[in-house]
Amino acid sequence: MTQDTKGTGERQAYIASVGTALPGDPVDNATLAKMLDVNEEWIDVFIGTRTRHFARDLGTGTVRWSLADLGAQAAAKALAAPGADPAAIDFVVLGTATPDTLMPATVNDIADQLGLDQVPTFQLQSGCAGAVQALSLARTMIASGQYRTGLVIGGDVCSKHLDLQRDLSGAAPGDLVNFVLFGDGAGAAVVTDEPVGERVAIRTILNRFTGLGRAPGQVIEWFGLADRHDDRQALVEDYKAIEESVPVMAVEILWELLGELDWAPEDLDYLLPPQLSGRMTRRITEQLDVPTAQEVSCVADTGNNGNALPFLQIEQLLRRMSGGEKALAVAIESSKWIKAGFALEKI
Length: 347
Known about the structure:
By secondary structure, the protein is α/β, with parallel strands linked by helices. The chain has helices at 29-36, 40-47, 67-80, 106-114, 130-143, 173-181, 239-261, 278-288, 299-302, 309-320, and strands at residues 14-21, 27-28, 51-52, 91-96, 121-125, 149-157, 184-192, 200-209, 218-220, 235-237, 270-272, 294-295, 326-333, 338-346. 32% of the residues lie in helices and 23% in strands.
């Protein structure tokens, strides 16, 4: 029988399985520094990310995997796991900042690759909060009682916005950081109304826009036929604003989620901090200051692959989590300052 949330009568949602996909072999800092003609030590120290994966060939620029390819690979792994039933999927949700095309929606290409048909599909256009928003939508749909099982996908192919042939010798650090910070990837979860498979309950989800009147911390341009030769940068990031704001916002999110659940910090067994870069994640984790909780991070090895990151973290979490243990995840979208996060508990 479906359980409710905190005795409210609301139908509970559970993560039954997770799958992830990273394109190709990992690219280390030495390889990237040589290709971009930048200082390897700067990448090691300033970014703190060791490796990342790219969906395109660095030498030729040829796209080897689309977001739809990666999303379908991740979803296929989640659907093949114990407790998951592909025939039971009632809906599909994708969260991404980098769809393959504006039309058709990439979520529909993924559904096509998976052989899914006659189900509702949703695509949420968002940055680092997109995966959390997708989980939130799935949880709401299951709580409605109209749906029982959904496939939730998050992923990004960031490398298509970076011109790897560009001369970066005179690039400012705020521009150069984009070439070493990001990676590509996808993740997926099967979300159900009963505790099957991994039996991890989604206790609460936070998704709130907080950017009223604030300049964006990150902008990804869209170029149409009329302006594709414009000299605007495709990707612009105010890394200083992100460094200043994200740690503060992360602490606020942590305490808001704990307060909503009436959990104390020492109740947490695992902490999934924001995954900006290896260096930034270490700094944020220190400020969150939950020493009793085990950190679950992946960005130092995967690069910042956007909406794939929460699923990569959850995949690691599921390998460690035992019955009764609790985990809390914090995510922040700096493009227009969105607070996001969620809490999980193993049944």
